[in-house]
Amino acid sequence: VDASGHADFGTDAIEHDTDFLNVDDDEIAEDYEGDMPNTEEKGILDNSGWSARTRAVANYLQVLFEKEGQHGQDISLERLLAGKSRKEASRMFFETLVLKTKDYIQTEQGNAFCDIGIKPRGKLLKSEF
Description:
Strand content: 5-15%
CATH topology of one domain: Arc Repressor Mutant, subunit A
Number of strands: 3
CATH architecture of one domain: Orthogonal Bundle
Number of helices: 6
Structural class: mainly alpha
Low-confidence stretches: 39-44
Oligomer: single chain
CATH superfamily of one domain: Structural maintenance of chromosome 1. Chain E
Strand order of the largest sheet: 1-3-2
Helix content: 40-55%
Largest sheet: 3 strands, antiparallel
Radius of gyration: 14 Å
Order of helices and strands: HHHEHHEEH
CATH class of one domain: Mainly Alpha
Shape: globular
């Protein structure tokens, strides 16, 4: 845990492949066609109408939390966005809002213009993307 109270995932976990943020929805959708989750296998699935990028970000966060075993810890959005272009950062921020709205993640911001902490909800950890 770093000084701000967020889990310290280290640079390896934060920096894995985020190329999906640079791809237009039409191109990324091709990767997910035919790879839709089987709703009979998983109990909590309501992501079939999501954009391909939303599913990619959800999967990215799911893998990040599972890889680090930090299900109860929050991660810093600022650290996730470090080194990203403005386009990548805005896309990640938008998809974070989508996932928050759909109750797949929990976000917390102490004060305006401060870092945003992200925690996984059960739906994120139990779903297939």
